Amino acid sequence: MKKFIFLLAFVFSFAAISAQSKPDALVLYRNGNYPESIKICEQEILINPRNIDSYCVLCWSLVRNRQYAEAEVRATEARKIAPGDVRLMEVLGEAKYYQGKNGEALEMFRTYIASAPSNAARIGNAYYYMGEIYIRQGKYQHADISMTTAVYTEPLVDLWWTRCGYAREMAGSYASALDAYSKAIELNASQADAARGKERVAARLR
């Protein structure tokens, strides 16, 4: 009996050590090691083809590694298993956005926003990308609304404030554009695009 208990304890200890020593794809992703994260996720999916968490980290890593077409393929593949997973909706929108598939990306981000909780981690990102798509399409008032929502959700991203200022400037809302550009510079004094934008709209308001 004592031998059995000792053997059982050894097995559990070995399993715990193995789990600790196994590379964590999400940690690798967060540390910017996207190729290694992709590799680990692919191995996990081979073992369990229905591992949606691995699919999500895989797709995030593929997007950050600029493998947009592959990210789209894998996210689409994963959505056949879990069509309601909001993480897959959002990352699929990103993959399509970076390939210039504006209409499809916009639809995916709308689906994500309609499906995800209001405090979901990437709500701000979705509104930001929607704003960029509207800028591409010349729909500057729509872009203003999306960018304003993005910076309201995450108010410390200077790039988003800069792009919000640009959308407002292009929509002819110069005073509010000045506010957005000023906020971007407040967050990042070296934000050159915001500085140039602020000069342009200030001249308009003189």
Give a written overview of the molecule.
The protein has 206 residues and is an all-alpha fold. The protein has helices at 2-21, 25-30, 34-47, 52-64, 68-79, 86-98, 102-115, 123-136, 140-153, 158-170, 174-187, 192-204. The protein has two domains: 25-120, Tetratricopeptide repeat domain (Serine Threonine Protein Phosphatase 5, Tetratricopeptide repeat, Alpha Horseshoe), CATH 1.25.40.10; 142-205, Tetratricopeptide repeat domain (Serine Threonine Protein Phosphatase 5, Tetratricopeptide repeat, Alpha Horseshoe). Helix 8 runs antiparallel to helix 9 (140-153), helix 8 packs parallel to helix 10 (158-170) and helix 11 (174-187) runs antiparallel to helix 12 (192-204). The longest helix is centred in the N-terminal third of the chain and has 20 residues, at 2-21. The protein is elongated. 39% of the residues are buried. This is Tetratricopeptide (TPR) repeat protein. Keywords: Repeat, Signal, TPR repeat. InterPro entries: TPR-like_helical_dom_sf (IPR011990), TPR_rpt (IPR019734), Ycf3/AcsC/BcsC/TPR_MFPF (IPR051685). It comes from Treponema ruminis.
